[in-house]
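Q: What would this chain look like folded?
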Amino acid sequence: MAIYIWQGKTRDGASKKGELEAKSVEGVMAQLRSQGIVPGKVKGKPKDISEIFTFLQPKVKVKDLVVFTRQFSVMVDAGLPLVQCLHILADQQENPTFKRAIRDVRSQVEAGATFAESLGKHPKIFDSLYVNLVAAGEVGGILDTILNRLAIQLEKQDKLAKQLKGAMVYPTTVSAIAIACILLLLIKVIPVFEKMFADFGGTLPGPTQMVINISAWLQAYIHYLIGGTVAVITAFKQARARSLAFRFKTDLAALYLPIFGNIIKKVAVARFTRTLGTMISSGVPILDGLDIVARTAGNMVIEKELQDTRASISEGKTIAEPLQDSKVFPGMMVQMVSVGEETGSMEVMLSKIADFYDDEVDTAVGALTSMLEPLMMVFMGGSIGAILIAMYLPIFTIADSIK
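A: My prediction, written as C-alpha cells:
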C-alpha cells in the first residue's frame, strides 16, 4: 500500500484534489470513479524527510498509544470491523511515525495476518506485553476488554514514570545551576581577584590560595575534564549495551543504592504485580505471563529472579516459594501472593499489591524530594559562599595594613 496525490473533477466540473492510499495508480482511479470523481493527475506522494533520515522521526509517546488503545477498544465494542478501525485511527493520527505503523498493521491484517502478529512487526511501539495481551484477546473473543485493560495499564505505568522524573527535576536543575555558577566564578571571576592580589603582593591566606590553585587547574584542564566526563558516560553506556555481565552488576548495584535502591525495588514490585495480574485476568497462562513480565522488567536482576520463579513453577512449585527465597521482593508481597494462590484470587491480590506499592512509591518520592531540596540549597549556598569568603579574606588583610 502506498499514498498517492490526486487531482480530478466532479460531474459538476468542480476541481478537487487530495490524498488516497491504494496498491497502485489504477486502484486510486477506481476509488475516485466510485466517488463520482473523474481522475486527472495521480502520482505517488514524495517521501517526507523524516522517512529518509530515520533519526528525525518523532517517537511514539505513551499518551499516543493510550489514546489509540482506548479508541480502538470503543470501536471494537461498537462492532466495527478491525480493518475499518485501523483505517479511521490511521487517518486521524497526527504523529507521522505512528500513522505509518498503523497503516502497515492494517495492510498486514488485510493480507491475512492476525492483529497480534501485525503489531509484533513494530516492537518499538508495541512491546511483547501489548502483543501477547492482544493475542489473548483475539483468541478469547474479548479484544475490546483486553484493549481497555491495556490502556489502564499503560496509563498507570506512564504516571509512575512521570512521578520519578518529576522528583528528579528540582535537584537536577539546582545542581546544574550550582555547578554552572561555581565554574563561572572559578574560571572568570577568580582570575580577576588573583591579578589584584598579585599587584598588592604579600602572602595570601590558605583558603584563598587553595581557591586560586583550583581556578588555575580548571582553566588549564577544563577541556580534558569535559572530554573525560563525556568519555566515561559513553563508555558506561557502551559497556551496558555490549556486556550482559556488566549490565547485571550495575543493575544489582542500583537495587542497593542508598535511598534510590528502595524506590527502584518498589517500582519493580508495582510494575511486576500489575502486569502479571493484567495478563492472568486476560487469560494468558501464568508461565507465559511470567516470561513476558521478566523480559519487560527493565532490570536484569529482577528478570533473573522472575525467570527462576517461572522455572520453579514449571517443576510444580507455587509462585510464593521461589519468591520467598529472593532478596529483591519484600516479604509482605510474598505473603499476599501466597494468600492469593490459596484463595484462588491471584489477579485480585496482585492488583491490590500493585496499588499498595504505587502508594508506597508516591510516599517515597515525596520524602526524597523533601529531603533533596534543602540539601541542594545547602550545597549551592555553601559552595558559592565558601568561594566568596576565601576571596574576601585578603581584602580584610589589606584593609588592616592600610590602617
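The CA atoms of residues 93 and 99 lie 6 Å apart.
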